[in-house]
């Protein structure tokens, strides 16, 4: 069943290129445009949407945080992302023109289900992004975009996350395509990049041995911090969540811009800090800012583990450990940047003698509050 791997998680990490390709399958037409009839909204309904609200929990919430950057950039529609458990107990302002997206691997998460019920009661359309056919969340939604990751057995979500990202990008690009924005050319180019991305994920997987080695060398550490900017910030949150779940270590993700507002006080000699570096192409301001953040923490003794695009030479002098990822458009970078963090957490868990597929105290699907 584990296909020769020691753990389901390893198998599922390895399956990611295929999962990503399967989620794209049939959704990009021969002309390079998106066909997403599954969204079940007419072009005029899609043009009417004046707000997108994403609700989810855990790793699916991190996918939602990344989706916000994509949706707002490509569609210019305001997008909010909220933990389902918070959303459902507020009085969120929704209406008939709000599009609510509920992201869930299992389709059975109680808080996400309650959040979508609440949204539908307010007259909003709910689109589920889900991996489990016929589960409760898609059944109760107006439409569903299935992620085709295949069954995910390990409690820690990996391939489901990458495919949730793909589904979110598809929705964002489709909304942009239908509504027509000044980003038309960029949207076509990104659709092309997305159709190649599974090969890039594969390339990352082929270079993971040094990451595993590094993880083993950190097995006795108490804390690991994760920093990122822009879409790298939710990636940092996801890296930290994986480490908590699997290695039972104290791990926190921060927006690098927040360092001086508190977290930098945590930096002490030899503290491992993972930094997700945005592409130096595209938004170079972001890149330069994070390079100075790396300098700042390294000057205080942090052991920097830098995840940066191939060809990014500016980070080299400040990286104690450098993990290379392929160049991608800025917004797609999480698809390649998350993979080393999954491998890192999985290897640390193994080195610490933890049960990888079934971490203590956790359930695969949280069907209670
Ligand atoms: O099935 P769901 O996607 O709704 O689950 C949401 C979270 O419970 C889930 O992502 C959880 O955070 C994972 N264990 C993370 O690895």
UniProtKB/TrEMBL annotation:
Coiled coil: none annotated. It is found in: Cytoplasm. Keywords: Aminotransferase, Cytoplasm, Glutamine amidotransferase, Repeat, Transferase. It is an enzyme of class 2 (transferase). Its EC number is 2.6.1.16. The active site is at 364 (for fru-6p isomerization activity). Residues 42-181, 214-359 form the SIS domain. The keyword Transferase applies. The keyword Heme does not apply. It catalyses: D-fructose 6-phosphate + L-glutamine = D-glucosamine 6-phosphate + L-glutamate. Catalyzes the first step in hexosamine metabolism, converting fructose-6P into glucosamine-6P using glutamine as a nitrogen source. Homodimer. This is Glutamine--fructose-6-phosphate aminotransferase [isomerizing]. It comes from Streptomyces coacervatus.
């Amino acid at each position: 069943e584990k296909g020769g791997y020691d753990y389901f998680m390893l198998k599922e990490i390895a399956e990611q290129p295929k999962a990503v390709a399967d989620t794209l399958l049939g959704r990009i037409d021969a002309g390079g445009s998106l066909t997403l009839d599954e969204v079940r909204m007419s072009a005029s309904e899609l043009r009417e949407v004046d707000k997108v609200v994403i609700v989810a929990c855990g790793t699916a919430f991190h996918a939602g945080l990344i989706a916000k950057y994509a949706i707002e950039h490509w569609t210019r529609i305001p997008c909010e992302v909220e933990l389902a458990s918070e959303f459902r107990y507020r009085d969120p302002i929704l209406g008939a023109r709000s599009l609510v997206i509920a992201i869930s691997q299992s389709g059975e998460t109680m808080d996400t289900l309650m959040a979508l019920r609440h949204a539908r009661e307010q007259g909003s359309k709910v689109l589920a992004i889900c991996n489990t056919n016929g589960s409760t969340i898609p059944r109760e939604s107006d439409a569903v975009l299935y992620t085709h990751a295949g069954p995910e057995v390990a409690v820690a979500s990996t391939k489901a996350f990458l495919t949730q990202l793909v589904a979110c990008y598809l929705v964002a690009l489709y909304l942009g395509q239908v509504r027509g924005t000044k980003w038309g050319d960029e949207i076509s180019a990104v659709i092309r990049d997305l159709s190649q991305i599974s090969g890039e994920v594969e390339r990352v997987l082929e270079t993971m041995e040094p990451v595993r080695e590094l993880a083993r060398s950190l097995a006795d550490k108490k804390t690991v911090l994760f920093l990122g900017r822009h879409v790298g910030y939710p990636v940092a949150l996801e890296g930290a969540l994986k480490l908590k779940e699997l290695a039972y270590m104290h791990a926190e993700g921060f927006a690098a811009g927040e360092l001086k507002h508190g977290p930098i006080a945590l930096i002490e000699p030899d503290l491992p800090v993972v930094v997700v570096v945005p592409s130096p192409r595209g938004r170079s301001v972001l890149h330069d800012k994070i390079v100075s953040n790396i300098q700042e923490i390294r000057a205080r003794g942090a052991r920097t583990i830098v995840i940066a695009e191939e060809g990014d030479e500016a980070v080299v002098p400040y990286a104690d450990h450098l993990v290379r990822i392929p160049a991608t458009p800025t917004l797609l970078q999480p698809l390649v940047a998350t993979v080393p963090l999954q491998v890192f957490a999985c290897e640390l868990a193994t080195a610490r003698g933890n049960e990888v597929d079934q971490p203590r105290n956790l359930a695969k699907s949280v069907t209670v509050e």
